């Protein structure tokens, strides 16, 4: 039985329907990340799960119990927001223990749980400080501590790291993930950042305009994106897409011929119009190679590798090559595509072929 279940949830604000029927089942202990562009309905979905927003129709179940009509406080969940909004006049200890105090939890139990949360979050040295005397990362940990001490059945996170600088974000995402794994608490985490989604999730749910485009393990999204939207959204730099055709077992891109592995050529067959996708990092040596000539317009050395940004056959391309690759701006260069990593999409429906 799934632990959290959204069943055919819809949500309209006035005449605007932001969630068409959306259904999602989450297993006990699973870390699910909802990711998608701004405005696609991630926060709305999470708030409906929390009970902070009422669904227009559909049911919400937690632990098999229908909580659709229950108050947020009765749902056994706790939520961490982007603007962690600590009480400025309270110490870290008081901030973390406040909700329990309001609920009338005995003082000895509050003290024990606050101590435990502070230990898990490495906040022990700061328990008597006020929020203004903490760094951004420490404040965010206090916000997580407040959610933690309630020992909820489900954690909800809404872009909790967006206010932190890039380095701290990377550290905190690892900490949150390790903490969730240690506690085994079911978690639903919202972000617009595909790297955060890929690195933290057991399962990533890619959303667009209130719809689930694909829900899968990170590696599946990367290797077998269900459609062009997911293919474009996951991976950085983004996948290259070309309008191409397939003829006699090879992708034809303008005058260039890129042979496919035989079994893939058989599977796809000849096609007049196809969207051919290839990731920048798959322009290296492989078991099934094809040479593509491109013209770099900008060259970005990143140390571990170099990005060539330019065009091939009048279409934009990004290639990720070895740092020693001899590229010169505006001079044609030949890169080697790994055609075992080619993706194909229908030009009309954009679905994976
Ligand atoms: N209270 C509201 N009233 C009207 N429209 C809203 C309200 N809350 C959200 N929306 C709209 O619903 C859509 C989804 O919003 P949201 O769930 O916040 O997206 P996300 O978190 O993915 O950025 C957006 O188009 C947004 O403008
Ligand atoms: Mg949001």
Layout of strands and helices, then pairs:
Layout lengths: L3 E10 L2 E11 L4 E5 L6 H9 L6 E6 L2 E2 L10 E4 L11 H11 L4 H14 L15 H13 L5 E5 L7 H18 L2 E6 L2 H7 L2 E6 L2 E6 L1 H6 L4 H6 L6 E8 L2 E4 L2 E4 L2 H7 L2 E8 L10 E13 L4 E7 L2 E7 L11 E6 L4 E3 L8
Parallel strand pairs: 3-8, 3-9, 6-7, 7-8
Antiparallel strand pairs: 1-2, 1-4, 4-5, 9-10, 11-12, 11-14, 12-13, 14-19, 15-16, 15-18, 16-17
- Which CATH first-tier class of the largest domain would you pick? Alpha Beta
CATH architecture of the largest domain: 3-Layer(aba) Sandwich
**CATH fold field value of the largest domain:** Rossmann fold
Order of helices and strands: EEEHEEEHHHEHEHEEHHEEEHEEEEEE
Give the structural class: alpha+beta
How many domains make up the 3D coordinates? 2
Distinct small molecules bound, one entry per kind: adenosine-5'-diphosphate, magnesium ion
Please list the strands of the largest sheet in the order they lie side by side. 6-7-8-3-9-10
Helical segment tally?
A: 9
Residue fraction in strands: 25-35%
Q: What would you give as the CATH superfamily of the largest domain?
A: P-loop containing nucleotide triphosphate hydrolases
Average of per-residue pLDDT values: 93
Major sheet characteristics: 6 strands, mixed
What's the number of extended β-strand segments? 19
Helix content: 25-40%
Q: Which radius of gyration do the C-alpha atoms yield? A: 24 Å
- The stretches of 5 or more residues where confidence is low (pLDDT under 50) are none
Tell me the overall shape: elongated
Distance between the termini: 33 Å
């Amino acid at each position: 039985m799934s632990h959290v279940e959204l069943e055919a949830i819809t949500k309209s604000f006035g005449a605007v329907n932001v969630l068409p029927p959306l259904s999602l089942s989450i297993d006990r202990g699973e870390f699910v990340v909802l990711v998608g562009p701004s405005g696609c309905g991630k926060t709305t979905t999470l708030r409906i799960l929390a009970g902070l927003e009422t669904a227009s129709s559909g049911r919400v179940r937690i632990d098999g119990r229908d909580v659709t009509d229950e108050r947020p406080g009765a749902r056994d969940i706790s939520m961490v927001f982007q603007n962690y909004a600590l009480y400025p006049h309270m110490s870290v200890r008081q901030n973390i223990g406040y909700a329990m105090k309001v609920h009338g939890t005995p003082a000895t139990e509050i003290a024990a749980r606050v101590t435990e949360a502070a230990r898990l979050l490495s906040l022990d040295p700061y328990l008597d400080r006020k929020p203004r005397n903490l760094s951004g990362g420490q404040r965010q940990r206090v916000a997580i501590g407040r959610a933690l001490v309630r020992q909820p059945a489900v954690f909800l996170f809404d872009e909790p790291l967006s206010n932190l600088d890039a380095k701290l974000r990377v550290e905190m995402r690892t900490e949150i993930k390790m903490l969730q794994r240690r506690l085994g608490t079911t978690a639903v985490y919202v972000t617009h950042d595909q790297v955060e989604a890929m690195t933290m999730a057991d399962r990533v749910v890619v959303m667009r305009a209130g719809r689930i485009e694909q829900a899968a393990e990170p590696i599946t999204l990367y290797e077998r994106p269900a459609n062009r939207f997911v293919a474009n959204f996951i991976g950085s730099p983004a996948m290259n897409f070309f309008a191409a055709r397939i003829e006699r077992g090879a992708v034809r891109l303008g005058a260039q011929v890129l042979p496919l592995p035989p079994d893939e050529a058989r599977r796809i067959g000849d096609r007049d119009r196809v969207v051919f996708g290839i990731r920048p990092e798959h322009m290296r040596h492989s078991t099934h190679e094809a040479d593509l000539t491109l013209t770099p317009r900008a060259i970005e050395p990143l140390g571990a590798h170099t990005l060539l940004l330019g065009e091939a056959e009048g279409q934009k391309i990004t290639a990720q090559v070895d740092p020693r690759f001899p590229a010169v701006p505006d001079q044609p260069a030949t890169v080697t595509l790994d055609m075992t990593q080619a993706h194909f999409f229908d030009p009309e429906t954009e679905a994976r072929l």
